[in-house]
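User: Design a sequence. Structure:
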């Protein structure tokens, strides 16, 4: 009986590719050539899964299911990852996956909005298999457009709350990070200015030309800022706010982490983004950076991972999800300079996040459903509000 159940589980994993929702850089290999198996035909892959299921028995069936998935993923032999976390973490995660399973793993680092645009253009025939890292607003847009595959992950049991996954299992959270300001204390002292304490402070005339924010056309971080202000202030007031803020913006960077990299060297005085990116810069030696959690409230990202609908290596993609929801993956984040709070119950939290005082006690009750439904429209409204001021300060390369 157990063998028959294992066979059914293996077959269902191979055949279950349900879409969610309603209806250039150079690719990089995670490590030098390793023991990856040549990709097989779909029939051979199914046979491999069946054989693994027939030969493996375990109490409860979960181990049997995962063992069969591992064998099927190895038979596919390849995986391509689009990553929207920092490249050091992306590279480390892909290298570890390749070492663990012998599956040749390639990756490309793109901002979240770039990934969303790319897979939208590929229209169900994605050139990658999975998405790793980056805030979930663009993920939710992809869910609405049926670009992500539903997969019921065994290791989703490790999540600390169902709040950290898509209700239809199209994406799973792996970390969260708080939105705030990073300031260059030396430059503020030189200019005789105090650090901003609230979002409204950023619009003060004294900060003209001193602030960097990311570009919402390329960075999910900027989309989160737009959604946050709309939820805190209301739509029309938020658009008026961005008009005032724009007067103080020196540059809109391509990547959400871009502003954090400019603060320490003094290329900007105030950077708006995720504060864990500021921690990384401080630990790189920029002790002139201070972190500010806005007193009037802020929001947080849920960094996620997902499978692209129609991907070429669905079993390797499912195995990636199981891997990403385990300490084998997320416990290496801090070693690669990523200090987000982890949302995996059996993972080890980076002590750096707590040491720098990054608690989640001042965050708003973020409306993910509103962001899912309206992010694209809100970005259009943002650029319409800025009008002719939307100029070459918006970096896309």
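Assistant: Done.
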């Amino acid at each position: 009986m157990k063998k028959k159940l294992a066979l059914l589980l293996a077959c269902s994993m191979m055949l279950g590719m349900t879409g969610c929702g309603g209806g250039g850089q150079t690719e990089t290999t995670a490590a030098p050539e390793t023991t990856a198996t040549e990709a097989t035909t779909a029939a051979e892959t199914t046979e491999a899964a069946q054989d693994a299921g027939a030969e493996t028995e375990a109490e409860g069936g979960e181990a049997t299911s995962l063992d069969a998935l591992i064998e099927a993923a190895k038979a596919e032999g390849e995986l391509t990852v689009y990553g929207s976390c920092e490249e050091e973490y992306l590279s480390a995660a892909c290298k570890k996956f390749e070492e663990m399973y012998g599956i040749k793993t390639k990756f490309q680092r793109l901002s979240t909005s770039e990934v969303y645009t790319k897979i939208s253009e590929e229209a169900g025939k994605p050139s990658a298999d999975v998405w790793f890292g980056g805030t979930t607003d663009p993920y939710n847009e992809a869910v609405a457009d049926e670009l992500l595959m539903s997969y019921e992950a065994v290791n989703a049991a490790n999540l600390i709350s169902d709040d950290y996954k898509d209700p239809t299992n199209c994406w799973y959270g792996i970390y969260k990070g708080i939105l705030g300001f990073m300031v260059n204390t030396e430059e503020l002292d030189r200019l005789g200015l105090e650090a901003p304490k609230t979002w409204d402070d950023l619009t003060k005339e004294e900060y003209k030309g001193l602030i960097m924010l990311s570009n919402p056309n390329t960075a999910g971080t900027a989309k989160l800022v737009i959604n946050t202000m709309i939820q805190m202030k209301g739509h029309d007031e938020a658009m008026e706010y961005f008009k005032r803020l724009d007067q103080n913006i020196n540059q809109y960077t391509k990547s959400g982490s871009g502003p954090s990299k400019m603060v320490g060297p003094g290329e900007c005085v105030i950077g708006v983004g995720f504060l864990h990116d500021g921690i990384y810069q401080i630990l790189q030696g920029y002790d002139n950076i201070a972190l500010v959690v806005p007193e009037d409230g802020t929001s947080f990202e849920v960094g996620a991972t997902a499978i692209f609908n129609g991907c070429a290596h669905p079993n390797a993609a499912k195995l990636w999800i199981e891997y990403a929801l385990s300490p084998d993956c997320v416990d290496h984040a801090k070693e690669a300079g990523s200090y987000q709070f982890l949302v995996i119950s059996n993972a080890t939290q980076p002590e750096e996040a707590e040491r720098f005082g990054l608690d989640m006690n001042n965050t708003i009750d973020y409306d993910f459903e509103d962001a899912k439904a309206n992010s694209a429209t809100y970005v259009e409204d943002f650029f319409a509000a800025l009008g002719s001021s939307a100029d070459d300060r918006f970096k896309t390369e």
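The two ends are 57 Å apart (CA to CA). The first strand starts at residue 18 and ends at 19.
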